Structure formats: C-alpha cells, structure tokens
C-alpha cells in the first residue's frame, strides 16, 4: 500500500487530476457492469474506490499546504 501512495505523491497535480478522471470513469463502468451482472472482478470496485480516496486525500493535503 505504501508504494501506491509514494507513486501518487511523485505525480504532479495535473497527473493526479487525470488519474482521478480515469478512475471515476472506470468506477462508473464497473457499477454499470455490476448492475447488468457482467462484472468479472467484484473486488475491483473496492480497489478503485480506495484509489479515488487516496488521490482526493493527497489533493486535499496539497491544497492545505499551499493555502498556508
């Protein structure tokens, strides 16, 4: 888990925003697949949700540091 966080910290704000958009798109597709009973890996929903949370947390941290 720490390596994922470290990888995210190494990215720029623009890269994080792009990753967040991609994850949200993937989350939508996974929810759609779940609703139509076509989901192959149900655990992926949880992984994507946590990755979104990691990025949002990092963005909040960076915003707090820059506003000081």
TrEMBL record:
InterPro entries: Ribosomal_protein_uL29, Ribosomal_uL29, Ribosomal_uL29_sf
Pfam families for this protein: Ribosomal_L29
Recorded GO CC terms: ribosome
Protein origin, superkingdom: Bacteria
NCBIfam families: L29
Family statement drawn from the similarity comment of this UniProt entry: Belongs to the universal ribosomal protein uL29 family.
Name under which the protein is recorded: Large ribosomal subunit protein uL29
Organism: Novosphingobium album (ex Liu et al. 2023)
